[in-house]
Amino acid sequence: MLRVSFRHVWKTCVLFCTSSTVPAARGKASLKKRWRTDRKNSPWDGHLSWEERLADRVTPLWRLGYEEQLERKQKHQEVILSHISGTLHFPVLSILPSPVTEGYRNKSTFSVNQGVDGNPKTVGFYVGTWRDENIVCVSGDHLLNMPERHTLVARCYQDFMRCSALDPCLLFDAGGHWREITVRTNAQGHTMAIVYFHPQRLTPEEVDVHKAELVDYFTRGPGSVCQLDSLFFQESAMTRCTHEESPYQLLHGQPHIYEEVLGFKFRISADAFFQVNQSAAGVLYETVRDLCVPHTDQEESGGTLLDVCCGTGAIGITASPRVDRVIGIELIEQAVKDAAHNAALNNIPNCEFIPGKAEVVLPGLMSQLSSAGGGLTAVVNPSRAGLHPKVVRALRNQPSIHRLVYVSCKPDGEAMRNFRDLCCPPDPQRKLIGDAFSPTLAVPVDLFPHTPHCEVVLLFER
Ligand SMILES: C[S@@+](CC[C@H](N)C(=O)[O-])C[C@H]1O[C@@H](n2cnc3c(N)ncnc32)[C@H](O)[C@@H]1O
Hints:
Blueprint: H1 2-18, H2 25-41, H3 50-58, H4 66-82, E1 107-113, E2 122-127, E3 136-138, H5 148-163, E4 178-185, E5 191-197, H6 204-219, E6 230-235, E7 249-253, E8 257-261, E9 264-268, H7 278-292, E10 304-308, H8 314-319, E11 325-330, H9 333-345, E12 351-355, H10 358-369, E13 376-380, H11 389-396, E14 401-408, H12 414-423, E15 438-445, E16 455-461
Parallel strand pairs: 5-6, 10-11, 10-13, 11-12, 13-14
Antiparallel strand pairs: 1-2, 1-4, 2-3, 4-5, 6-7, 8-9, 14-16, 15-16
Helix pairs in contact: 1-5, 1-6, 10-11
The site of S-adenosylmethionine has 21 residues, from helix 8, strand 11 and helix 10.
GO molecular function: RNA binding; tRNA (uracil(54)-C5)-methyltransferase activity, S-adenosyl methionine-dependent
Protein name: tRNA (uracil(54)-C(5))-methyltransferase
EC number: 2.1.1.35
């Protein structure tokens, strides 16, 4: 009964308030094109539109041509990397560009908050700061890194929310339910949406009613224009929850999304990490593979590759044909299951993946690997928080590791502390007793056109 009555509500809502907010994909394409033409033509007068302010926050290099963006990033990386030891004494190769520079994101998370017009049920990205209490949510339709499918889903979610009887959850302690939405897409155009919801004091039965309305909207209502392949729902009272803390509930469609990189297929669960730019991920993984296991006619490959913070197994799996054995370690259980599945999916028999925190797993694993024949290479790709000191210690104090590849999306943050701890003279007080590594080569790879960020692949040897 309730589902029928909600359908009546959204039908009425569509008539009165949403015909302009749920544009067809073609309409959005022309909107983006028009905005881009406008910003090129309009003189710089200091009065920025909301779209410009958002673009300046999210994609601050959007006014520059791509070549100029790459030059800036190259220089910036060189400055950062010179801080490892005070001067830049190793080569930094030219930044590798992203094969695709527009609409490249395969994952976007849209917030919910007050819009420019004061409507609290607005889906988009923040302009302003919490400190200044001037947060405004602005639609991301015009952002150059955003695919149209993502903004279409965001628009539809906004439309759904505006028809829902429930309030949005803007501040956790101020009540409200509807929270952000994550959209994942792949190269084939498959689309997964994950809606985050604060249950507050609703009973499970009451929550079920709203879940049913959400499914109805996206499968039979106006949201069906998004052609969602998967719709997930996560109830959470925290900013971020893993699947173990609060399960990702599949409300509709397929439980996974699949991506293909360097000829390997990857299954990706709702809460598993995958590089946000699929085409540039190919460039990144090729670079990482070549630095981990150089493959020349003269050189024999083999040995063991330790893939620390392996996510769904992408680095280890793409390098696996060149080594005898891959051992991956990953915190998120769903990602570890994906990694094991991905090895089987690609008929790769020499990969194993261990769930857990690297700082807990690695020290014990190292003693078993001491006797591993054929050499040991490590590749680490931690999140922005960098590696735990125990991981750095375990890697440094394992004499079999002569080659270590560090992949970082933020080398000027916590990763810099890791670089220094890998390269400083032995320091028994801090239990850094193994020989020091030296950085010998760096390769920046641009995965994030229009933003100041890029990945850097750093080779350390000893
Ligand atoms: C930047 S992602 C890289 C994933 C993978 N290498 C890839 O390229 O797809 C970082 C990964 O580290 C994992 N992670 C974060 N902290 C960790 C820890 N303490 N121990 C093990 N894995 C961790 C995250 O869950 C995430 O999957």
